[in-house]
Amino acid sequence: MLLLSKSSLVKLLVQRVGQANLSTVAGLEKFKKINYEKIGIVGVPFEKGQRKKGVGLGPKAIREAGLIDSIQEISNKLDIRDYGDIRYEALNLQGRLAANMKKLEHVASCTRFLSERVTQVLNEERLCLTLGGDHAIAIGSIDGHLKHCSDVAVIWVDAHADLNTNSTSPSGNIHGMPVALLAKELADYWPYIPGMDWQEPIISIKNMVYIGLRSVDPYERLIIEKFGIHAFGMREVEQYGIHEVMRMALERVDPEGKKSLHVSYDIDSLDVLEAPSTGTSVRGGLTLREGIYIMEEAYNTGRLAAVDLVEVNPSIGTPDDVRKTLDAAIHLLVAACGHNRRGNFADTLDIVGKKK
């Protein structure tokens, strides 16, 4: 039996992988790889974080558009479990409300249940796909990821920064606040929030990176500059290209290649021509090809553990708009599960019709 040294094994892997480089493969020694043969799906039909009706129908519409079948086409070996939808009852806060935080009693309850479910899925060693719903649900999904593994890096793909506090938000809609609620550096900017005692802001904002920004409020811009938050807006995508942006993003939040990755993906990061059925669309966004590439590269790290796909609203637009948006959502999600545009590997090496 031939025994290879560690350095020889790494070199062999580089030759086999082709596009990989030595430092990337060597990084595989530093973390336990995610078991991508097991996938868990969690639906969150939640729309209380913003004011437009219909986004709560997103999980049902994405499933009915063929999500599970599309993922299964990657490989028959994939073990896909649908955990159903998060159900909750609004909290009775007994009049204890935080100023300018609309529907807090709903957000606090739903996100707590979601946090517990995401932790369960990850503890069962599955890649966790969370289907929203509005982006307020990321409070729960990322918290659940952090409770499973404290060393997490977040890639926030969005047209908006979602970095307002209750004192700076122009609307009071909580789907514009999740990053500020999660980041430990911003904890002192918040008052006591009734119903949110279960959630502690423990992730460093240095472990978060934005891709796709193009609609940022003045206070959010100030915080991004003040704390040196890693942010790649559409200007940077145009300047460097999505390949280089994704490389820099991963290098900034996970330079040693050992953090568990969480991609929180707002469908409005895509240009409105690619995904018209969403509530806060902004022209000049990512192409679908660029959006897919982000997911592919996150998957290719071997460290992608959780994905949110949010803000698909099937009640907005024409039937063709809805179909186009759902199609885009499924393309993104299957890329996160390992679909390769160059073709997926066959489950067996047996060749049909092979002569004996």
From TrEMBL:
Sorted UniProt keywords: Arginine metabolism, Hydrolase, Manganese, Metal-binding, Urea cycle
Gene Ontology terms: cellular component: cytosol; nucleus
Pfam families recorded: Arginase
Catalyses which reaction(s): L-arginine + H2O = urea + L-ornithine
Cofactor(s) needed: Mn(2+)
Pathway noted in the entry: Nitrogen metabolism; urea cycle; L-ornithine and urea from L-arginine: step 1/1
Cofactor note: Binds 2 manganese ions per subunit.
Gene Ontology molecular function terms on file: arginase activity; manganese ion binding
UniProt cross-references to InterPro entries, sorted A to Z: Arginase, Ureohydrolase, Ureohydrolase_dom_sf
CDD domains: Arginase
Keyword Phosphoprotein appears in the UniProt entry: no
GO biological process assignments: L-arginine catabolic process to proline via ornithine; urea cycle
The protein's Enzyme Commission number: 3.5.3.1
Domain of life of the native organism: Eukaryota
PROSITE patterns from the UniProt entry: ARGINASE_2
Listed NCBIfam families: rocF_arginase (TIGR01229)
Family: Belongs to the arginase family.
Protein name: Arginase
Organism, as annotated: Culex quinquefasciatus
Gene: 6049529
